[in-house]
Amino acid sequence: MKIYCTKDFTLSYITKGNRKNQTIVLIPPGVGQVSYYKDLINTLSKKYFIVPIDLPGAGKSLCKEKDNNVKGISENIASFLKKTNIKKPIIIGLSYGGNIAVHISSKIRLKSLVLIATGEYFNFLIKILLSIIFSPALYSRKIRRIYAIIYIKLGIQKFPDCKGKQLKSICQRWYDIIWYRLPSDYKSSVRTLIIKSNRDKTVKKSSYTKLEKIFVNNEIIDLNCSHRCKDYLNTLKKNNYKEIIDFIDSS
After folding, report:
1. For 64-99, what is each residue's pLDDT tens digit?
2. Please, which pLDDT band fits residue 155 given cuts at 50, 70 and 90?
3. Cα 237 to Cα 66: distance, rounded to the nearest angstrom
4. pLDDT of amino acid 211
5. Number of compact structural domains in the chain
6. Minimal CA–CA distance to 36: which of 238, 229, 244?
7. pTM confidence score
8. Among 75, 133, 199, 209, which is 20 to 30 Å from 123 by CA?
9. Beta strands 9-13; 2-5: pairing state
10. For residue 127, what are the domain limits?
11. Stretch 199-209: mean pLDDT
12. DSSP, residue by residue, 153-192
């Protein structure tokens, strides 16, 4: 595991493959780590240079509280890519990681972009309900600990650190997910693959219309799976990620 560190941001990541090949940056979902993409990393690294990252709140990645949102994280990752001389990468983002990828695309030049289960997630009533549930965790360590224990017992989420900054970072991330909105004033010609599913009840259908307007040079693939991020990856894995590889190869 490698560490990139500034006074504002710490990023843990790995690299795999030949540095001379096209670089692909993998951004995991909400509180995901590099390990989320294990099989995809092994598949893509045969032909490409792969840079999977841990988002703040996972692994050793951390950021300031004010930057623990899509805008702040995307700015920090864009800065990391510039400072490490990664030019015109292909970026693959899943769920919340896809939203971050959308914003990175407005800050640096990309060769192409793959967005999986990306968009806005909840209707207004669910936003209010989730806010009531998660808001107390932003301010109380005890409540955060209770939530972590519940999540672990239910097998929903394995928190990397149930005591310190990471758990608070995770709760802040959830709150950011609840109220996230796709940019309304951004247009891009970067070649983009949008992967969605008609069985996904989480991402609003209107999100894909918005993505098509943001990324006018797009291709769309419709899978048959739920919104659970691993369901998307497992569905793609059945065909050995052919849809993604074909898109990347033709970029």
Report:
1. 888 889 999 999 999 999 999 999 999 999 999 999
2. low
3. 36
4. 97
5. 2
6. 229
7. 0.90
8. 75
9. antiparallel
10. 122-179
11. 92
12. HHTS---S-SSSHHHHHHHHHHHHHHH----SS--B-SEE
